[in-house]
Amino acid sequence: MDGDLKGKIPHYLTYEVTNTDKKKIPYAYEVFRNLALTGTDWVPGTQVSASGGFGTANASTPCEDSAPDALAPGDSYTSCGTYMMSKGVGVMSVTHTFGGSLVSPADQVTSWPVDGGLAKASMGMAAQGDTIAVRWDAGKEKGGVLELPATLKSVRKGSPADLAGLELDDDQRHRTPYYVTISYRNPGNTDLYPGQASSVRVLTEGGQQIGGAPALVLDGLEIAGCPSDGSGGMVPPGGKVTQCTVHLSADGDEPVAVGFEDADEGDLSVWRAHVS
Question: Does the model's pTM come out above 0.90?
Fold first, then answer.
């Protein structure tokens, strides 16, 4: 293997699928598309594909894709999928998701935690309330990539009723909002644009990274549980700004940490979350 997969370690997931419906399920092998192995770095493993199907169909490997094209009522099949993960990274959870993307929560989430995975993922995380340096690209004219002292102030659980009045789709309307408040200090010599909200991620038990947005960006309305700081302007050198972002999570998938996607590296600076 070369490119992004070079040097990564294969992990093999064996799973069983049963058709409990009264109708035949076509394309039964596509279950693998929605299964994810999430690492202790909160990054999903890369599914290895082979022509003609999903997973590794090479008999010389310890993982054979044996999923059928269709599954009759009451029938089951057992198959195996291969995931490539970075060296030294453990597995936190196995997750089946439907819908969603990197910065949007799945519509449905079912997860199976791996023993010790969450504890390993939590090692090295900052505590809520700690101030850590996050990397944010302020632009060439404003000093380039800055290390901003940032403090996670709170993570609060809201209610779908909080979103009444917002123009949301049917799935979003039934999701649970979580409100994340982080303060930043401008360490540079020029004014800082307060646009850090786009880098904030809620990390969930199901291994998802859920992006958020300030309440005012969602629909131009104020949400009582997530007020803006009211300034809306540039932050002077040495000044501070506090931002609240709204993250919509599928029911039952609870936040366990908050991450900031560092500029130019793609890594996450992470705090443990205590939801109130």
Answer: no
